[in-house]
Design brief:
The chain is α+β, with helices and mostly antiparallel strands and about 150 residues long. It folds into two domains: about 1-60, Ribosomal protein L9, N-terminal domain (Ribosomal Protein L9, domain 1), CATH 3.40.5.10; about 70-145, Ribosomal protein L9, C-terminal domain (Ribosomal Protein L9, domain 2, Roll), CATH 3.10.430. It has helices spanning about 25-30, 40-75, 95-105, and strands spanning about 1-5, 20, 35-40, 75-80, 90-95, 115, 120, 125-135, 135-145. It has a four-stranded mixed sheet with strand order 4-9-8-6. Strands 2-1-3 form a three-stranded antiparallel sheet, covered by helices on one side. It is elongated.
Length: about 150
């Protein structure tokens, strides 16, 4: 059976691709989950409209991410932590702590989008990468200070 993909599907292809799959796979999995349409002339016209809507939505998300990236470049956050005698932290500064500090500043960033190569374990100033979109990255300045 020939189907047209409505979404990017890793095993089969990208949105709008016409692929041939087994009848049962199409009827029992792809079509009920709205991953694909049966390939008809009407479905080909409908998928063109969906592709345009999808492209516009992705472009809008990218523009919003670019604006947010410019704002994040300008801010710095301070995280106060307990330290021992030799300037080492009790514990470490994690991406969750950075996300919470950003939330206090009014930016809702998921902790999984904050890219810490390793947890911060000493006092200082750090540049932390934030992945806002697959193509948009930003840096946030993090000051780790004594409590």
């Amino acid at each position: 059976m020939k189907v047209i993909l409505r979404k990017d599907f890793e095993q089969l292809g990208k949105i709008g691709d016409v692929v041939t799959v087994k009848d049962g796979y199409a009827r029992n999995f792809l079509i009920p989950r709205q991953i694909a349409y049966e390939a008809t002339k009407g479905a080909l016209r409908a998928i063109e409209l969906e592709k345009e809507i999808y492209r516009r939505r992705l472009e809008k998300e990218k523009n919003e991410a670019n604006k947010l990236a410019l704002e994040l470049e300008k801010i710095s956050i301070t995280i106060a932590v307990k330290v021992g005698d030799d300037e080492k932290l009790f514990g470490s500064v994690t991406s969750q702590m950075i996300a919470d500090a950003l939330k206090e500043k009014g930016y809702s960033i998921d902790k999984r989008k904050i890219d810490l190569e390793e947890p911060i374990k000493t006092l200082g100033i750090y540049e932390v990468n934030v992945k806002l979109h697959p193509e948009v990255f930003s840096k946030v300045k993090v000051w780790v200070v004594r409590e």
